[in-house]
UniProtKB/TrEMBL annotation:
Keywords: Hydrolase, Protein phosphatase. InterPro entries: Caps_polysacc_synth_CpsB/CapC, Pol/histidinol_Pase-like. Coiled coil: none annotated. This is Tyrosine-protein phosphatase.
Length: 257
């Protein structure tokens, strides 16, 4: 088995991931070349721009899997969603219009708005947890409020959330500040998995393999293996335990004076 990618935008024509089948096939080839064998395909859902109903995503995933097999691309895909945190999540859940990172509906990929951590975030997360769902906060390092106050992520880990860090963030594709914060999260044990979040856009290419290679080089093979084991546990709906610490303060020489 190759890498498991729990967050990518490969399906054609559903969101900003890929405009057409040809592009989706190229992305799938990129995924395979990057070392990915299994991917949860996660179009945006309820993010203010895209609504991708559960049944539509399942159908699109089946169709795309059939095409992948027909053209001989060895990638196994599963239907998922990247769900935007809002007051629409719980009603959508009650209407059975949500897809998860696993078949049993235990782990939800939850996206905060990019600019802030909404004041109602903890209430929605608590409501999800009451329903037996564990949110995986996707790319917290790309949220502006968390980027400027990274200690905030610890509050969500404390309340039982997991985290998905984006490989490109860790590699510096989105700039040094995001790379540094991602590295601090990893160093403190605050990352659960790396994922590609691949789109057919510039700067959103498949970099999961490179991200895992950097993880192994910087933090050692045990940490890289743990990230892969976590991805496997999540896609199987198995328990994942986090052993994390609060972030270490950044040391600044000038801070002494
Ligand atoms: Fe995404």
């Amino acid at each position: 088995m190759g890498l498991i990618d729990l967050h990518c935008h490969l399906l054609p024509g559903l969101d900003d991931g890929s405009p057409d089948l040809e592009t989706s096939l190229q992305l799938a080839r990129d995924a395979v070349n990057d070392g990915v064998s299994h991917a949860v395909v996660t179009p945006h859902h309820l993010n203010g721009r895209y609504v991708n109903h559960r049944a539509d995503v399942i159908k699109a995933t089946e169709d795309f899997q059939a095409t992948l097999e027909a053209v001989g691309i060895p990638l196994t895909i599963f239907a998922g969603q990247e769900v935007r945190l809002s007051d629409r999540v719980i009603p959508a859940l009650d209407a059975n219009d949500i897809l998860f990172a696993d078949a049993d509906g235990r782990y939800m990929l939850l996206e905060f708005p990019s600019s802030e951590v909404p004041h109602y975030a903890k209430n929605v997360i608590f409501s999800l947890q009451q329903r037996g769902i564990t949110p995986i906060i996707v790319h917290p390092e790309r949220n502006k409020e968390i980027l400027h106050k990274p200690e905030l992520l610890g509050d969500f880990l404390q309340s039982g959330c997991l985290t998905q860090l984006t490989a490109s963030s860790y590699l510096g594709t989105f700039g040094k500040e995001i790379e540094d914060v991602t590295t601090r999260f990893i160093a403190a044990g605050q990352g659960t998995i790396l994922a590609s979040d691949a789109h057919a856009l510039s700067h959103r290419e498949y970099e999961l393999g490179a991200g895992m290679a950097k993880l192994e080089k910087q933090f050692g093979p045990e940490v890289a293996s743990q990230y892969q084991a976590n991805a496997k546990a999540l896609i199987n709906g198995d328990l994942v335990q986090m052993h994390w610490q609060p972030l270490r303060k950044k040391r600044k020489f000038l801070g002494l004076f």
